[in-house]
């Protein structure tokens, strides 16, 4: 599944800087993760870079965008090409 930034976001930019998918963008008043781009850092890191970087712990799994590990790997592979 893709990830979701909660309303607790303060737009500190920490997550956006770390996202290898360039899936995080500013959408006032909080940042948003594009579910079509987010691969949850599968094949890149052991856990999503944005979750690790977020000092406010406001990034969670998005229940509306459930994907299998294989689907996430395909997204990651498309980004590499």
From TrEMBL:
Could you tell me which residue ranges the 4Fe-4S ferredoxin-type domain spans?
1-29
Q: Which domain of life is it from?
A: Bacteria
Record keywords: Iron, Iron-sulfur, Metal-binding
* A GO molecular-function descriptor: iron-sulfur cluster binding
Checking InterPro entries in the record gives: 4Fe4S_Fe-S-bd, 4Fe4S_Fe_S_CS, YfhL-like
Is Repeat one of the keywords?
no
Kindly provide the name given to this protein in its UniProt entry.
Answer: Ferredoxin
UniProt organism field: Campylobacter novaezeelandiae
């Amino acid at each position: 599944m893709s990830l979701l930034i909660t309303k607790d976001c303060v737009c500190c930019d920490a997550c956006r800087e770390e996202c290898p998918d360039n899936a995080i963008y500013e959408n006032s008043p909080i940042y948003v993760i594009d579910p079509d781009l987010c691969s949850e850092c599968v094949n890149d890191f052991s856990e999503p870079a944005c979750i690790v970087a977020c000092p406010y712990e406001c990034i969670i799994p998005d229940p509306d965008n459930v994907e299998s590990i294989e689907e996430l790997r395909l997204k990651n592979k498309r980004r590499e090409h």
